[in-house]
Design goal:
The protein is 0% helix and 54% strand. The chain is built from no helices and 11 strands. The radius of gyration is 13 Å and the shape is globular. The N and C termini lie far apart (40 Å). 32% of the residues are buried.
């Protein structure tokens, strides 16, 4: 099992920045990749970004490319999501995820609220 704990959410004005952190514990050596999903009110949960554990390869949703950056610190078992130029439509609960194999999402964090005011 892998446990994930997010932090760093909050309220920010449009155009501002936030950095989310996700600390992993447990069987962290088994993870292939970690990433972020988000869910806005009344909408389905959607992929935001992910990064592979060993090679650091990243993938982003088109809606956040250029504005968001995912990074990792394997020594701390922590993944970060730097969010710049935030827009009201980025308002959502952000969930940290961990995958043990390519294409899977095996573990979820509890989520952290990000609210962007206009």
């Amino acid at each position: 099992q892998v446990q994930l704990v997010e932090s760093g959410g909050g309220l920010v004005q449009a155009g501002g920045s936030l950095r989310l952190s996700c600390a992993a514990s447990g069987r962290t050596w088994s993870t292939y990749a970690m990433g972020w999903f988000r869910q806005a009110p009344g909408k389905e949960r959607e992929f935001v970004a992910k990064i592979t554990r060993s090679s650091g390869i990243t993938h982003y949703a088109d809606s956040v490319k250029v504005r968001f950056t995912i990074s990792r610190d394997n020594a701390k078992n922590t993944v970060y999501l730097q969010m710049n130029s935030l827009k009201p439509e980025d308002t959502a609960v952000y969930y940290c995820t961990a995958a043990e194999t390519l294409g899977s999402v095996d573990y979820w964090g509890q989520g952290t609220q990000v609210t962007v005011s206009s």
